[in-house]
Structures are given as structure tokens and as C-alpha cells.
Amino acid sequence: MKKSIEEIQKEIISEFSDLTDWEEKFQYLIELGEELPAYPEEKRTESYLVPGCQSRVWVCPSLENGELQFYADSDTALTKGLIAILIRVFSGHSPKEIANASLEFIDAIGLSKFLSISRRNGLSSMVNMLQNFAKNSGSEI
């Protein structure tokens, strides 16, 4: 059975609670980013760039069978890990679920506390872009 956005967030919170310090947490985020599938070169265009990010982050949505799938890449390892964790939470859910999702895990694992202001702003921009894709993806909302 498919996991809800809330269940996925709980899994992430649990995974991060096992890590003892921020060096381990950042390393884990980097590892998550390394697991992203290859991003198509033809989608590395301005129209797929996340605005408001210090790093370059590309996100491409795809609506498949009423569910959004997201593909992404970044030019920095930590940012790639941040987008990877957001994709894990959102991909495979309906636009309505994504648009209405509340992301408690960001505070629960300490990202809003331990990321620099510019990275927090970038993370917020990524969340906004993913949820805007959901809001603009059709009649389900």
C-alpha cells in the first residue's frame, strides 16, 4: 500500500533521529542526493530552475496516472540532498495532496534551525515550486 505524505515524513524524522550530530545529518542528505536518478540534459534550462536558490536547482514535474512525479538535480551536493528529500515526500501523490501538504519534518529534523539563511530560503523556494506545480497541474485541485 502506498504511504501517505505524513507517513513518509514520519519515516524521515525517524531516520534523522538516529543520527547523532549535524555532520552525520548533512552526510546523510548528501547520500540521498547521490541516489537521485540522472536528470535529463535537455531539462537543464532556465524554465526548470528553482528561483530564489543560491545553488542551481532544476526540477521537472511529470503527471502520471493522476500522480505527480518530480525529477531534479542541483550543482551542489547538499542542495541536491535537500531536493531529494522533498521529492521523496511529494512524488507519487496527487496534486491535491501535495498542494495541501504541511511539511512538519523540516522543523522536526532541525533543517530550519541548522541551515544557513540562504539555504533555508532556497529550501523554501524548492517547496514553493513543487507545491505550485501541484496547484497548477489540473482540475484535481
From TrEMBL:
Pfam families: SufE (PF02657). SUPFAM superfamilies: SufE/NifU. Signal peptide: none annotated. Residues 14-132 form the Fe-S metabolism associated domain. Belongs to the SufE family. This is SufE family protein. It comes from Leptospira idonii.
